[in-house]
């Protein structure tokens, strides 16, 4: 009896529920050495590995918090994974009236689109799903974020 009750519970996810109930964005800050005191971080990265459903469960509160920012600008998602549908956004409780979903065109890469969205300044945060971000890509994103007074968040799903 005791064993079957244990099997019906989702594996490990409840361990994160108390943590995720707290504001999680301050924990996402990178440690950029050239940053001046009091200046906001311009680039952050989050790496999630595991079952897609669990990764989405961990990602939901982060995106929900970003979609509820006091900043009147957009939360922009650049080329999100196919699993992040309008239905998923709604079910995850995100404020869809404050989110832009953008896909790169045939003559524009996701990186170019992310840089343009950052540079224009119409978004408080631009979320991308690049694989590994090398120094050159990071520098491009930081420069664009500086121009637009925005933040770049890259999410790596494993």
Automatic annotation (TrEMBL):
This is CDP-glycerol--UDP-pyrophosphoryl-N-acetylglucosaminyl-N-acetylmannosamine glycerophosphotransferase. InterPro entries: Cell_div_suppressor_SulA, P-loop_NTPase. One of its GO terms (biological process) is negative regulation of cell division. SUPFAM superfamilies: P-loop containing nucleoside triphosphate hydrolases. Signal peptide: none annotated. Pfam families: SulA (PF03846).
């Amino acid at each position: 009896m005791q064993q079957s009750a244990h099997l019906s519970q989702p594996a490990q996810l409840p361990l994160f529920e108390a943590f995720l109930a707290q504001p999680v964005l301050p924990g996402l800050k990178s440690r950029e050495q050239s940053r001046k005191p009091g200046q906001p971080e311009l680039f952050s990265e989050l790496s999630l590995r595991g079952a897609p459903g669990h990764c989405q469960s961990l990602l939901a509160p982060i995106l929900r918090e970003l979609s509820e920012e006091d900043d009147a600008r957009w939360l922009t998602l650049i080329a999100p994974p196919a699993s992040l549908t309008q239905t998923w956004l709604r079910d995850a409780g995100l404020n869809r009236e404050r989110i832009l979903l953008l896909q790169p065109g045939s003559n524009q890469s996701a990186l170019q689109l992310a840089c343009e969205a950052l540079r224009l300044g119409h978004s408080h945060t631009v979320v991308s799903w690049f694989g590994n971000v090398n120094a050159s890509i990071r520098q491009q994103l930081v420069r664009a974020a500086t121009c637009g007074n925005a933040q770049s968040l890259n999410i790596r799903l494993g």
